[in-house]
């Protein structure tokens, strides 16, 4: 993503590759946040 992002000002066509990457990353983060956390066994 960084390599595409640095090239967008020089060649706006790279935005066509960067935008889907950002969308997929956001969807994955939302899915991870919505998933209930599993707790591991804690020693007491």
Short overview:
With 44 residues, the chain is mainly alpha-helical. The chain has helices spanning 2-7, 15-34.
Keywords:
0% strand, 44 residues, mainly alpha
Tally of discrete structural domains: 1
Strand portion, in percent?
Answer: under 5%
- What is the number of helical segments per DSSP (H or I, 4+ residues)? 2
* Element pattern in H and E: HH
Radius of gyration: 18 Å
Mean pLDDT over the residues: 83
Structural class, please?
mainly alpha
The helix content, as a percent range, equals 55-70%
Q: Major sheet, described briefly?
A: none
**Number of DSSP-assigned strands:** 0
Describe the structure.
The chain is mostly helical and 44 residues long. It has one domain. The protein is built from 2 helices and no strands. The mean pLDDT is 83.
Please render the helix and strand layout as text:
Layout: H1 2-7, H2 15-34
């Amino acid at each position: 993503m960084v390599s595409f992002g640095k090239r967008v000002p020089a060649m706006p066509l790279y935005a066509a590759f960067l935008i889907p990457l950002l969308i997929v990353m956001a969807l994955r983060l939302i899915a991870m946040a919505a998933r209930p956390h599993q707790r591991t066994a804690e020693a007491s």
